[in-house]
């Protein structure tokens, strides 16, 4: 009988780049580019600095680089730090079916692995993209099998399933045997961790970093024939039954190797919770179309779903982080700047007098019939004109995916505080054409800072 | 309000060696000695060798030693490897209320910490023993609060609670502030992991090692002000509610700092599951009292609780590991050798013709009225004499604790394959008098192998 664990192990070993559909390849490249931008953006954040201060005391040989920085660490800790950085702004990708942020655990692990040449040689762009697709598929399929009960009880699903994705992707690059891959998934299962209680603290972005590190370590252990259960996922006392009350095996095995969960990945255009995105999106569209200036605007009227006010009804945010929980601040920025990136959620922007003045003219009210993915947006100008837009789906949803240009623009917004424009253009081009790269280590000089 | 997390943090910071009762101090020294013996005994086992092969690729500076070996690793990985070694034979200590093996996660972490001087200076024997008491109390109290539901659902409680014990003990030695200690416990909570499904594989002893490593890392992160939830243990989406359906706060707070869970620690005299211990114990007592030789024995008759046959009814074991699941093999050894240590469960002993000949003369039958902790043992001699003993409680139980001499003898049995007798005597003496040691690093030359 083929168990889910064995099926995933075989898939991780058998899946070939040449068989991946064009849509899957395109989404894999977008996934990686978007992830890299998030990691660069937060690379100097205190969350990263503090983790690095702890890691410095015990890190091993300089095998792999920290994105956006000068330091090099052993591959496990490089994976940890890059995984932390990429989720620090909570601006990375989302597999909407499970709310998994798929790239972090997998990309952080295989990037460190590739630079360290942990498999004994060069990792090509094709092998890297293939491993990314495999890792994301493994973590999201396991997520599908246990969601939503697993998430509802309190597990941060990005951490708990991410460790499997990292193990599978690294195991593939490491050339594990089938027996070893089964063990790697078991060693991943027995390290699955991460609580939702940590949301709002530095321990939230710790989860994808930790999943990357532990998944990579699981593969390294399995390579040395360190044994585990062979039914780590599905056994009575295995991952699924211990960490969830739901386990649907079909979610793991159905069309495995034929359709790929990475096809369903999405990228946030706005640096805040997804519930405000329809409102922001309406404001951005109107602002851009009419080249709005704040001084023209009398007020902004939002007709919204009740969840928007419940989750993001903060009237007078005082910090950047609080701004993310304010539909008022978010929509004021969307009209003033035509965007709502990480910069719009800085402490400075939130306390800017001009932003506050417009924020105080944003009115938000529940409008019956408006769904969670919709928003009814009106901008009333001082000259009496009323600009109206009903947003059916926000940019960044599966129904209205971000274009490649949108993803590039987001990347630029994140990277510009760290890298000059010329470097950013080169890095975007390199990530977009990653499959053509003969050795993924060619990314390293593009993604790291120069020693002072 | 003092939450359980805060209460444990304060206890971990406030508990002083000078206030510990004599019984607690004595048990702490026994706990450490017993743990050290188990780690020495398995120090050359393939489980350790394979983990070490993986770790070599990424280990950091040589900060801390591997027990019974020549290698030195960064303190996190030394904690991992020593924690793995100490649980490899499943012969370490047991907190019977929760089936936690308390020493592994805590002792492995603080020993590596002390050798690395991670707190910036010398760790005295007194501070070390105090930290051990603290760590064991924290892990066992958390265990009491969630047991048995937490264990029943499938968590390996030594791994899941051990990470808290290691974090608290290391956090104390590291001089964390109260806020940092609360964060350390939160970072521990979000790493809690380890599935019972791994029993029977190398991933079982991985759990205490991993808990030691991750708990130590939690303390190092907290020291750098890496934040977490402040209610990591008791919050709705915190450790207790996500990983158990039971949470009794009183188990954490009641008499905290007044009575100590380490007082309840026990040490296995026999290297197998506790269910056979009464039978073995009866055989050992009779063999010693009458200086029995195998050739005198006609047959051995055991009257036992049904669980003994259910769990350990293997009639013809073929490997050492299978021998641990055979009451027949175990009692044959107990009569022949007057002991049932790790040596009696080697592949060689299990396939020895003399042992098999006596094993085939062991009869085991359920006897109504015999409780799980009892055994009715009869040895019928060829001269017709019948030796009889009813065992009320086996050696190693709380009711009949091992004497210091028993613990020493167990240590010798474990260490003799690795160290000469003279060294063993010195190491026992050093562990017995650990509180008098000015610098715990004085243990290092006694517990490590000499470079060839």
Give a summary of the structure in a few sentences:
The structure is a homodimer of 452-residue chains. With 452 residues, the first copy, chain A, is an alpha+beta fold.
Main traits of this protein?
homodimer; 452 residues; alpha+beta; 2-methylcitrate dehydratase PrpD; 60s Ribosomal Protein L30, Chain: A; four-stranded mixed β-sheet; two-stranded antiparallel sheet; 8 strands; 51% helix
What radius of gyration of chain A results from the CA coordinates? Answer: 22 Å
Please give the order of strands in the largest beta sheet of chain A: 6-5-7-8
The biggest chain-chain interface is: A-B, 59 and 59 residues
In the residues of chain A, how many domains can be counted? 2
Structural class of chain A: alpha+beta
| SS field, number of helical segments of chain A | 21
**CATH T-level fold name of the largest domain in chain A:** 2-methylcitrate dehydratase PrpD
Shape call of chain A: globular
Taking the alpha carbons of the first and last residues of chain A, their distance comes to: 58 Å
Strand content of chain A: 5-15%
Number of strands of chain A: 8
CATH fourth-tier homologous superfamily of the largest domain in chain A: 2-methylcitrate dehydratase PrpD
Estimated helix fraction of chain A:
40-55%
Mean pLDDT of chain A: 97
CATH class category label of the largest domain in chain A: Mainly Alpha
Name of the CATH architecture of the largest domain in chain A: Orthogonal Bundle
Assembly type of the chains comes to homodimer
| H-E string of chain A | HHHEEHEHHHHHHHHEHEHHHHHEEEHHH
- Low-pLDDT parts of chain A are none
């Amino acid at each position: 009988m083929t168990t889910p664990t064995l099926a995933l192990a075989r898939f991780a070993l058998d899946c070939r780049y040449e068989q991946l559909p064009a849509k899957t390849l395109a989404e894999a490249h977008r996934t990686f580019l978007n992830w890299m931008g998030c990691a660069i953006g937060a690379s100097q954040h205190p969350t990263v600095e503090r983790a690095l201060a702890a890691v410095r005391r015990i890190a091993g040989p300089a095998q792999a680089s920290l994105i956006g920085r000068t330091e090099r660490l052993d591959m496990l800790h490089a994976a940890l730090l890059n995984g932390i950085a990429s989720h620090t702004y909570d601006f990375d990708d989302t597999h909407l079916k499970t709310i998994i942020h798929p790239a972090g655990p997998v990309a952080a692990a295989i990037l460190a692995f590739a630079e360290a040449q942990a498999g004994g040689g060069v990792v090509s762009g094709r092998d890297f993209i293939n491993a990314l697709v495999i890792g994301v598929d493994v973590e999201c399929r396991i997520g599908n099998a246990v969601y939503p009960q697993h998430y509802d009880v309190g597990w941060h699903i990005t951490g708990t399933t991410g460790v499997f994705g990292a193990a599978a992707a690294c195991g593939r690059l490491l050339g594990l045997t089938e027996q070893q891959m089964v063990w790697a998934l078991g060693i991943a299962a027995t390290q699955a961790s991460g609580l939702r209680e940590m949301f709002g603290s530095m321990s939230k972005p710790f989860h994808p970093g930790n999943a990357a590190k532990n998944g990579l370590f699981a593969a390294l252990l399995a390579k040395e024939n360190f044994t585990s259960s062979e039914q780590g996922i599905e056994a009575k006392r295995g991952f699924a039954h211990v960490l969830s009350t739901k386990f649907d095996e079909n979610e793991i095995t159905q069309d495995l190797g034929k359709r790929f969960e990475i096809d369903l990945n999405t990228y946030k255009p706005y640096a805040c919770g997804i519930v405000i995105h329809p409102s922001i999106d309406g404001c951005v569209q109107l602002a851009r179309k009419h080249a709005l200036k704040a001084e023209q605007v009398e007020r902004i009227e939002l007709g919204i779903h009740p969840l928007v006010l419940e989750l993001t009804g903060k009237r007078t945010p005082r910090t950047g982080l609080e701004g993310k929980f304010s539909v008022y601040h978010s929509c004021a920025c969307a009209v003033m700047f035509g965007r709502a990136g990480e910069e719009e959620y800085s402490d400075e922007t939130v306390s800017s007098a001009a932003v506050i003045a417009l924020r105080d003219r944003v009115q938000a009210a529940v409008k019956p019939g408006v769904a969670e993915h919709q928003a009814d947006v009106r901008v009333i100008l001082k000259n009496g004109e009323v600009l109206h837009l009903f947003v059916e789906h926000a940019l960044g949803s599966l129904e209205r995916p971000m274009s490649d240009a949108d993803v590039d623009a987001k990347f630029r917004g994140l990277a510009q505080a760290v890298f000059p424009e010329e470097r950013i253009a080169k890095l975007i081009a390199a990530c977009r054409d990653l499959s053509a790269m003969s050795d993924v280590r060619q990314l390293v000089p593009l993604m790291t800072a120069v020693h002072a």
